[in-house]
Amino acid sequence: MVFLTLTNLIRVRGPDEIWRKRKIFRLAAAYVGRRRNCYSVAVRNVHRALVYATKARKLKKDDMKELWNTRITAACEQHNISAFTLKEGLDRSNIMLNRKSLSDLAAWEPRTFECLAAVAQKKLELDGFIDGVDKKHPTGVNLNLKDVMLETWLKEKK
């Protein structure tokens, strides 16, 4: 910023204040009235908005986790297997998929999810696992997977 007189430079209290205020006014550009034009009011409103934005980022992550868990649980109920049993069977089969991947498969590729549920069920049957939630052997959709040679693959990984 160019100052024509020395008096104006002194009144502004240096270049740092100009840039600090400009940053606040840019963040307050969408506001209406004094919230936009008056620095002291703009600072308060911008600070409040930034606090809400920070909290919202955490809440968004929590909402997405909840959505993914809901999708996985619903898909597991369709295939008569609990979500814990599915995750345990996939871990024992060395199939490392996170919540987001599993929920996307459950929502958009149900056949693939059905095969994953069958793999998890078969692996837990081979290991003799009893579900801690249901206190019984995992049940699932009995699929004809002999063409895929599933049993030999699962026995190798043991």
From TrEMBL:
GO molecular function: rRNA binding; structural constituent of ribosome
Gene Ontology CC entries for this record: ribonucleoprotein complex; ribosome
Protein keywords: Ribonucleoprotein, Ribosomal protein
GO biological process entries: translation
CDD domains: Ribosomal_L20
Pfam families (alphabetical): Ribosomal_L20
Annotated SUPFAM superfamilies: Ribosomal protein L20
Gene3D superfamilies xref list: 6.10.160.10, Ribosomal protein L20 (1.10.1900.20)
Family to which the UniProt record says this protein belongs: Belongs to the bacterial ribosomal protein bL20 family.
NCBIfam families: rplT_bact
Full protein name: Large ribosomal subunit protein bL20m
Gene source species: Papilio polytes (Common mormon)
